[in-house]
Structure formats: C-alpha cells, structure tokens
Amino acid sequence: MPDNNKNWAFALHGGAGAVAGRDYAETERHLRELGAACQQQLQDDAAALDVVAYAVTKLESCGLYVAGRGSAPNSAGYVELDASIMDGRSREAGAVAALRDFVSPVGVARGIMEKTPHVMLAGAGALTFAREHGFAEVTDPANYYRLPVGVTREDVDDIAHGTVGAVALDTSGGLAAATSTGGTFGKLEGRIGDTPLVGPGTWADDNIAISCTGIGEHIIRSGGASSIAFRYKSGVPMENAVQEMLDEIARLGGDAGVIAVSRDGSIVMPYNSEGMKRACATSHSDLVVATFA
User: Is 163 a catalytic site residue?
Assistant: First the structure.
C-alpha cells in the first residue's frame, strides 16, 4: 500500500475510443509502469505540474497512443500535434496547436507557459518557438511515427481518435492537468480539436483538475473541462458534474471520456465510448489500470 500519511492522487488516460475485442495488454502494462513512477514522485513530494508533464511526455514518446509518436498524418500527409498544460494554483497555462514533428508537444506547451506571456502558439509560430528554445525535433518522420496499439490501417481512413492526459494532486494541495494528441486520423490540414484549448480540453484550478479525451468537436461544443469545473465549484458533486458534460456530448452525437481529481483526492474516470485506457492511484488506494469497464 502507498504511504497514507501524505494526501496525493493522480489519474492517467491513454484515450477514449478503445474498441471492444482488441488487445490492449501492452498499453495496460505501460500505464501500470508509468503509474508506479507517478506514485513514487508524488510520495516524494513532487509538484503536480511536474508529475503531469512527466506522465504526458512518456505517453507521447512511447508510440502506444494517439499522441506524439503514435500520431497519424493529416489530409495533407504530415503530422500536426496539439497539447496543453495548466497549473491550478497559479492558473498559468500553455498550449501548442498544429505543431509539426516535435518529440514532446506538452514540453513545448509548458515552455510557452513559462517563457512567454502567451497561452497558445500555433503553426509556424509554434515551430519557430520550439526550435529557438531547443526542444527535440523528429528528424526522420517517415520512420518515427507508428500505429498505436489497437489502431488498424482501416481506422486511419475512418477518423479514429485518441488522446493522452494526466491530472494530479500533490502533497502541498496543488492541482495540475495536461493533455496531448495527434488529433483524429484523416483530419483536415489545420484542424484543431479540444486538446490544446485551455478550458475545453484541459483545466485545473484550486478545486479540480481535468483532462478530456474523445471527439474534440463535440467536447468543445459541450463546454468541456471548464464546464465541469464550474458545475463542481457551484456545488454539483464531481461525478455528477462530469456525467452532465458527457450526457451533453452524447446528445450532440459524440463520445468522450474524462479523468478528474479534486482537492480532497477523489478521482473519477467515466467515459461513454466502448472503452478508455486509464490508470489511477491515491495515497489511500492502490494503483488501478483498466481499458474497459
């Protein structure tokens, strides 16, 4: 059992949209290993912002999920990457959209948060910023990107989707969230979903931290993560606040999943797709890893 003398919690997701009948054992093993590392960091009093940045960087670089290395080309034949990160205590946030060929989009997003007065950079400006600040580039795109676990060649032509994300509460009471994606497979050039949008895709404040996954257009139109946070702040229980947003997405014809952690260490991880790759642990509960219910 984890050390229960310090109150901490975290949750990870490797994307909603898992397809029943496909084998996700590899992603579950990875989530278990990554979850154990996040546990140790939080037990050692790491800041929530550092933990979510670390977790999402690992999720991006492994190629197992629809983010970072597991991203697919857009309709113009090249990969565009989106990510965002937010510190709940300071409300500082950074985001990058339509970034080409960098190893860690969430790292670039954090750089934007820490090194500029802006929240988001996109396209050519994001590329220039990332190069000027020495972020690692993908030097051989043709051999770097790979199909993530559970995705087939047929899915690439069928607007498959996926995202990665992390939320955390640290022992000082700080909350943070981060999200990253390669976007929907087959997306139009320049398409931007909810992931790099602070509010719809990622949110953290003094009360709650949230990362969304699913069909970005529907998440944006439903209000996304910040709509959950505002409901929660108004007194709606966290589980109900999340479910109300998911119900609205379903009403609009989409599917999605959410991971959220509150300042008291409670975690919810609901979804309305067939499955969602996910993991969580708290100072009072062991690590749980699952893809389907």
Answer: yes
Element (H, E) at 217: helix 216-222
Structure tokens at 292: 């389907």
Domain 9-290 in CATH 3.30.420.40? The answer is no
Cβ atoms of residues 117 and 81 within 8 Å: no
pLDDT band at 162 (very low <50, low <70, confident <90, very high): confident
Question: Which range has the worst mean pLDDT, 3-17, 30-44, 47-61?
Answer: 3-17
Sheet order of strands, 81-87 included = 120-122, 93-99, 81-87, 175-181, 164-169, 9-16, 276-282, 285-290
Res. 89: pLDDT tops 80: yes
Look at residue 2 in the predicted model and tell me its pLDDT. 44
Q: What are the pLDDT digits (tens) for 205-240?
A: 999 999 999 999 999 999 999 999 999 999 999 999
**Domain extents for the chain?**
9-290
Is residue 93 within 8 Å of residue 119, measured between CB atoms?
yes
Burial of 154 per CB tally in 10 Å (0-12, 13-18, 19+): exposed
Full DSSP string of 101-162: SBS-HHHHHHHHHHHSS-SEEEHHHHHHHHHHTTPPB-S-HHHH--PPTT--HHHHTTT---
- Per annotation, catalytic residue among 116, 128, 139, 163: 163
Please give the model's pTM, rounded to 2 decimal places. 0.96
Burial 49-67 (b: 16+ CB within 10 A, else e): bbbbbbbbbbbbbbbbbbb
Burial 104-132 (b: 16+ CB within 10 A, else e): bbbbbbbbbbeeeeebbbbeeebbebbee
Q: What is the mean pLDDT of residues 53-76?
A: 96
